[in-house]
Design brief:
Length: 344
């Protein structure tokens, strides 16, 4: 009688979910590292910048949590939900209700980074001309941009710049309102470079300034005036990043606090509203935007990959009642547009 030998069992194929399961662990570890670093509040600029990426990190956490739900990995799901919530919290904590004002008068402000590497000018100029804003603030208005700005300057009867005073000045403010007292050039002989003026609006004196702040990644010791950066940033708060941006923001805040209270500041801050430097800057100066923020840079990426680094903020009797990003232009930044009201 012939013995029937059963065939050897075939090796079980690796489950398709195995690789995804490992991916979940990897994402959880990365997000946990990012959250721990943010809570630690590092002074190294390249680590401190992680808190600027709250939207992107929270989005990654949400994606990973949904994947864990599909794969029924409950422990990882719970961990990822907690991480997503804690990473997203700063975003929602800095969102507020737009201010309500009874005075019907409104001031329309537009701020734009023209981008020194822009390939063209037509879309930008068309957008700025069509905006009909009362005041426009521009940064990165390089010498290559200035001929293209001629129609805009011709449309606005008043403008302030420091092009002839400083070769590094690339900031320009255009206004329909008469200028009472112009401001232009370097703050106390260093940085930032600002352009603006004291104006009269609705019979009341106000100050409007445009500025372009340093990027957050460079250390203070990489600056020609970096030796004093930590002292300048300490004017804002303790344990800020040891960056050129923090030192510059501290010096600028001290300058702004010597100005009259009714102030509008606009420009490319190179920081997000919930970031440590900008949060400390707003707390110290009283400048705020209760209407929120919008994703402005880089404009060629989907909105959820952009950062809200272009701002219009106000203080005193002046409040931002509406704020939004404008249409895409020739720049890598979207312009931002705000409506300003008067609060008694």
């Amino acid at each position: 009688m012939t013995e029937i030998v059963a065939p050897a069992p075939m090796p079980r194929p690796r489950r398709a979910g195995g690789a995804l399961s490992l991916l979940l662990w990897g994402l959880a570890i990365i997000l946990l590292f990012c959250q721990a670093t943010i809570w630690y509040r590092p002074e190294t600029p390249r680590l401190a910048v992680l808190d600027e990426l709250a939207v992107q990190l929270a989005g990654l956490g949400l994606f990973a949590a949904l994947l864990a739900l599909v794969l029924r990995r409950w422990i990882r799901l719970a961990l990822l939900v907690v991480l997503t919530a804690t990473l997203a919290w700063p975003i929602f904590a800095h969102r507020g209700e737009a201010a309500v004002v009874t005075d019907p008068a409104r001031l329309k402000i537009l701020s734009a980074n023209l981008w020194h590497r822009a390939a063209g000018h037509d879309r930008t100029i068309e957008t700025l001309m069509a905006s009909d804003a009362d005041i426009i603030g521009l940064v990165e208005a390089t010498p290559r941009w200035r001929p293209a700005l001629a129609p805009l300057i011709a449309k606005y009867p008043y403008h302030i710049d420091c092009f002839d005073r400083d070769p590094e000045c690339q900031t320009l403010v255009l206004s329909k309102l008469p200028i009472v007292k112009p401001t232009m050039g370097r703050i106390w002989g260093v940085t930032p470079i600002v352009a603006g003026a004291e104006l009269t609006w609705n019979g009341r004196p106000i100050t409007v300034l445009a500025v372009h702040l340093f990027r957050p990644l460079r250390r203070s010791d990489e600056s020609a005036w970096g030796a004093n950066d930590s002292a300048r940033s300490s004017y804002l708060a303790d344990r800020l990043p040891l960056s050129r941006q923090a030192g510059q923001a501290g010096l600028f805040a001290k300058y702004l606090n010597r100005l009259p209270p009714d102030l509008i500041l606009m420009g490319d801050f190179n920081s997000v509203p919930w970031g440590r430097v900008q949060s400390a800057f707003r707390d110290k100066t009283g400048l705020d935007n209760q209407a929120g923020w919008d994703f402005s840079w880089p404009s060629f990426l989907p909105w959820f990959l952009r950062l809200p680094i272009d701002h219009i903020v106000a203080r005193g009797h002046l409040v931002v009642t509406r704020f939004a990003a404008g249409p895409e232009t020739d720049s890598d930044h979207l312009p931002v547009i705000a409506e300003i009201g008067w609060r008694d």
